[in-house]
Amino acid sequence: MHYSSLVDVYEALEATSKRLEKTHVLAEFLKQVPEPELERVILLLQGRPFPPWDRRTLGFSSKLAVKAVAVASGESEKKVTESWKHEGDLGKVAVTLVGKKKQATLVSQDLTVKEVFDTLQKLPAMEGLGSTDRKVKTIAALLGHATGNAALYLLRTVLETLRVGVAEGTLRDAITWAYLQPQINYNMEKNDIEFHEDSDREAYNKLTQAVQKAYDRCNDFSHVAATAKQGGTAALSKISLELGTPIRVMLSQREPTVEAGMQRVGTPAALEFKYDGFRMQVHKDKDTVTIYTRRLENVTTQFPDVVDAVKAHVNAKTALLDCEAVGYDKKTGKYTPFQHISQRIRRKYDIDKLKEQLPIELNVFDILYLDGKELLDLSFHERRKLLEKTVKNVPKAIVYSSYIATDSIPDGERFNAKSLGAGNEGIMCKALDGVYKPGSRVATWVKVKPVLDTMDLVVVAAEWGEGKRSGWLTSFTVACKGDEGDYVTIGKVGTGLKELEQDEGVTFNQVTELLKPHIVQEKGRDVVVKPDLVFELAFEEIQQSPSYESGYALRFPRVLRVRDDRDPEEITTLEEVRVAFEHQRGR
Length: 587
Ligand code: AMP
What we know:
Layout: H1 3-14, H2 19-32, H3 35-46, H4 62-73, H5 77-87, H6 90-105, H7 113-122, H8 131-145, H9 150-158, H10 168-179, E1 185-187, E2 192-194, H11 198-218, H12 221-236, E3 251-255, H13 258-265, E4 269-274, E5 278-285, E6 288-292, H14 304-313, E7 318-328, E8 335-336, H15 338-341, H16 343-346, H17 351-357, E9 360-370, E10 373-374, H18 380-390, E11 398-400, E12 403-406, H19 409-421, E13 426-431, E14 441-448, E15 454-464, E16 473-481, E17 487-493, H20 508-515, E18 519-523, E19 526-529, E20 534-538, E21 541-544, E22 552-555, E23 558-562, H21 574-586
Parallel strand pairs: 3-14, 9-11
Antiparallel strand pairs: 1-2, 4-12, 4-13, 5-6, 5-7, 7-8, 7-9, 9-10, 13-14, 15-16, 15-19, 15-20, 16-17, 18-19, 20-23, 21-22
Helix pairs in contact: 2-10, 3-12, 4-5, 4-6, 4-8, 5-6, 6-9, 10-11, 10-12, 11-12
The protein binds adenosine monophosphate (AMP).
The site of adenosine monophosphate (AMP) has 12 residues, from strand 4.
């Protein structure tokens, strides 16, 4: 299959913002894709040559991309950079400059999907001496064969910034339309789907759920699509969790009070301490323990203490545990806030020393797999019983989360006070009958936080400073997660970061270094960055504002910290902002 066929689909997807139309475009295309190409195509549609659980990155910065465009077009790097600054989008520069050279040389060998895919997959493994050069040459060779707009999408894919709007729900539905023969009629004019009978609607929902369920378990649409095409729903239902393959974590909604939280999940409600650490997904497969962060990065080597605790105190041959790792002070025994232990996630050396200095306790709050059985569809209550049977409570090593089940609001309030007194963030309210839905922000888990006083927002653009701050990015445009899973801007922030390394907190320099590899557009002092870096911000108030895409702005925003354990997918949502805005008005 030619890469240009995929480029046509990228363009068609970009041309519409309507979800159903995107679904239709995708479904019609998927019907044409031959079997051996299917997995590659699905992954490339999502913008990466790996499934979401595989966190390998291509490691191709915009600086390398400039070099690759220079090599492919025969222009100097200086010329490419200038055109980039002028044009704003390096991909478009590639199309123009490489296109020009092509006309001169008349090379016309069209790229194939397989070529692009295989080449991209090889990039992460190119390491060591001379690897930068090899990477540049490899991508330049691809660009050299790109026709039409292919260079644009190729470059965006290499920079991991391809966003053509293939949201998870759209892909799920497209797979259903393409391979499971639902009885529906897509009316393009009305932008609606029509059903002949009510039972068709139900049947359709069942089909999309079957696809979703399979995806929740294997975390890879390329596998789901191939399975659906080959064996339909019967084959999909056989897809199950696999130890060693991380699943997406379940997320919570928010309510301002204990009472509202309990009512939201239904009483009697399960209440748990909400620990201020970081999420850990722990897979135990006999003697092999693997630990993933909330971003599904494998951090097993950084946490030998957790590996030992799980091996010693988890009474199961195989298990998958959802946990929060919390730091504690060795002298006082009290929990410490997240930022104390955050360096344990990144640090690759002196691990034994660090584990002594910054000890952690693993608080297990859910169990999703036990001795060969998947538990996702069991109720929370049943999972909790299995959890208590499986994990042995050994304080300062591994414990199951503190928990009560009650329908009394005063009891809930007391439990919340107790949690706050122990140095936690408050409580989580959970529905006793709730199932585990990977990757969803569900209404069966609700965190109690008095007001939305902080937000996790992703940096999408920035500005170079001037004068003594030149060389640093000093002003940052931040975005929350919009209703379509896109990022919508909500403000600019420059306060809260420090100038000097010796000051406590994050410095401009550190943030600049973190953002530099993600720069995708540069024009004058303005840069656009790939959404990757998450800031936790404090602010005085939420205001309505036409200046930002979200329709809101923050008064006096201030950066509290960099949340490098957070995936941009999981930041504060526009819906949460709306709720907080209404709540604030009601005060
Ligand atoms: P937030 O990050 O404020 O959206 O809150 C959700 C996070 O709280 C989860 O991702 C976990 O890392 C953390 N957490 C702490 N304690 C619990 C608990 N008992 N149940 C679920 N999540 C918890």
